[in-house]
Automatic annotation (TrEMBL), chain A:
PANTHER family: BLR5974 PROTEIN, HYDROXYPYRUVATE ISOMERASE. SUPFAM superfamilies: Xylose isomerase-like. InterPro entries: IolE/XylAMocC-like, Xyl_isomerase-like_sf, Xyl_isomerase-like_TIM-brl. It comes from Sphingobium xenophagum. This is Xylose isomerase-like TIM barrel domain-containing protein. The lineage of its organism: Bacteria, Pseudomonadati, Pseudomonadota, Alphaproteobacteria, Sphingomonadales. Residues 29-297 form the Xylose isomerase-like TIM barrel domain. It comes from the Bacteria.
TrEMBL record, chain B:
This is C-deglycosylation enzyme beta subunit. Residues 2-108 form the C-glycoside deglycosidase beta subunit domain. The keyword Lyase applies. InterPro entries: CGDB. It comes from Sphingobium xenophagum. It holds the Pfam family CGDB. Belongs to the C-glycoside deglycosidase beta subunit family. It comes from the Bacteria.
Length: 338, 129
């Protein structure tokens, strides 16, 4: 079988260089195109300074930029400021109105996928489904660590989608839920902040055995009298589950886009942390045809000691995507028919 | 995520009634001003009172208490804003230790997001009138 998985990039990946004024949005898109990552995911609240007042002229400029680079817009990352007021939370009506505003913007941009923050309530999204259907935008709830595909909060959205029989509400997995190995960039940053080698090794050993986070945190914080960096390192375990990659195939009908989170790619184009080989096999075997959209988030872990090179990191991830898709296809082709 | 960059080098300057400097929002997207819960400033180790501080992202100076209701203004991603501090006595030319803590009300987080930076900045003598 030939996989129809497509490759793209979220502009989130270039946050370091964009923040520092070293890359413009146009530079990011040009780079993505140069490595064959033709799908561009945007964060309007990051990439459009006059958000939410977006004119037709602004949209025409984005579309011209996409045409010039041979790219297209794949996904719109929405936010919902339920705490916009200090004195009270947004009412339900206000939340629906804010999401509807984003759906309309998606439609104006010609974007058919909207990343919905994981904290948005399923009953609020249910009220937005008629707008999503009318505007033809898929609302994908971001399955972000420490949630995972089968977390009951996530299943509530699946239940709403099933009950309504809608194709415009579902999920949007973030690959951070598949953290198989402890990230070397996390480890090294905590060592620079004063974590002692024997405590670091203890945390790594505990993680390698997949011991539940609370045991490790108690050992480090109380029994080992861990310092601030050591306790912080232990606490990272609380937010990074290793969900079972085999389960993702069951949810293929509910997602059309993936945020391909990573913290670091090695020089040989492997991710030392996430279970991409296992996940990509399931996606290929399940015939999934959406976008793997790079989401590089390693800048904050290395910027204290070295210049960040988001372009090289993203490039390596795309080499990995091609390699792992081909490998999955070969593995499937070698399986006996039946 | 961007803490070490939020105080802008070379931006410390004297004003008619105190001093001012430039800062960046320590967050990966822009944010409405009403969600900037606090800007905590200290100079040479001395805390500055909240009511001595004003903020300007380009639409005019606004007091921190008034920012809480500024629902139509945003601090865009990657953009400098000016933070001005009223102070009775001049800072004086030379090096000063400036610290800034941004406390941000991020709706999807259970706790406020805090970005902090502290830098030694050099105050140039005021240009002769």
């Amino acid at each position: 079988m030939t996989s129809t998985i497509k490759r793209g990039v979220s502009l989130y990946s270039f946050q370091e260089e964009m923040f520092l004024g070293q890359m413009s949005v146009d530079d990011c898109v040009a780079f993505a195109a140069s490595i064959g990552a033709k799908g561009i995911e945007i964060l309007p609240e990051q990439n459009i300074p006059n958000f939410p007042d977006i004119s037709d002229r602004d949209i025409a400029q984005w579309q011209e930029m996409m045409a010039r680079h041979g790219t297209h817009l794949t996904c719109y990352d929405m936010f919902l400021d339920t705490k916009v007021r200090k004195d009270r939370l947004m009412s339900d009506d206000e939340q629906v109105a804010s999401i509807r505003r984003d759906l309309i913007l998606c439609n104006r941009f010609g974007i058919r996928n909207m990343r919905v923050l994981v904290f948005v309530r399923p009953d609020i999204l249910e009220r937005c489904v008629p707008y999503a259907e009318e505007l033809d935008v898929h609302m994908g709830v971001e399955v972000h660590a420490p949630w995972h595909m089968e977390h009951v909060w996530i299943l509530r959205t699946v239940e709403v989608a099933d009950r309504l029989g809608t194709k415009h509400l579902g999920l949007l997995p973030d690959m951070g839920i598949f953290m198989k190995n402890y990230p070397p960039v996390f480890r090294d940053r905590f060592i620079r902040q004063g974590a002692r080698p024997e405590v670091v090794q203890f945390i790594l050993d505990q993680h390698a055995q997949k011991i539940m986070a609370e045991y490790t945190i108690y050992e480090v914080a109380v029994k080992m009298k861990g310092n601030k960096a050591e306790v912080a390192m232990a606490e990272t375990l609380r937010h990074h589950p290793y969900a079972n990659p085999r389960r993702i195939r069951d949810f293929i009908p509910y997602f059309r886009h993936i945020q391909a989170k990573f913290y670091e790619m090695d020089a040989d184009c492997t991710d030392p942390t996430h279970a991409y080989e296992e996940v990509i096999y399931e996606l290929v075997a399940g015939g999934w045809d959406g976008y793997l959209s790079s989401e590089y988030e390693g800048n904050r872990w290395v910027q204290d000691v070295q210049p960040v090179d988001s372009r090289e990191q993203v490039r390596r991830q795309h080499v990995m995507f091609d390699r792992l898709i081909a490998k999955a296809q070969a593995r499937i082709a070698a399986q006996p028919a039946g | 995520m961007f803490d070490k960059y939020i105080l802008v080098d070379g931006s410390l300057r004297e004003t008619a009634d105190g001093f001012a400097f430039d800062a960046m929002l320590g967050y990966y997207r822009g944010l409405g001003l009403s969600m900037i819960e606090d800007l905590v400033v200290s100079i040479d180790g001395d805390p500055v009172s909240r009511d001595a501080i004003s903020f300007d992202e380009g639409k005019g100076p606004i007091a921190l208490d008034d920012m809480e209701q500024a629902y139509d203004r945003r601090w865009p991603f990657g953009n400098k804003a000016t933070i001005a501090v009223k102070r009775p006595e001049a800072l004086g030319a030379g090096d000063h230790r400036l610290s800034l803590k941004e406390v941000l009300r991020i709706s999807y987080l259970p706790f406020p997001l805090v970005a902090e930076d502290s830098k030694m900045l050099t105050l140039a003598p005021m240009a002769a009138a």
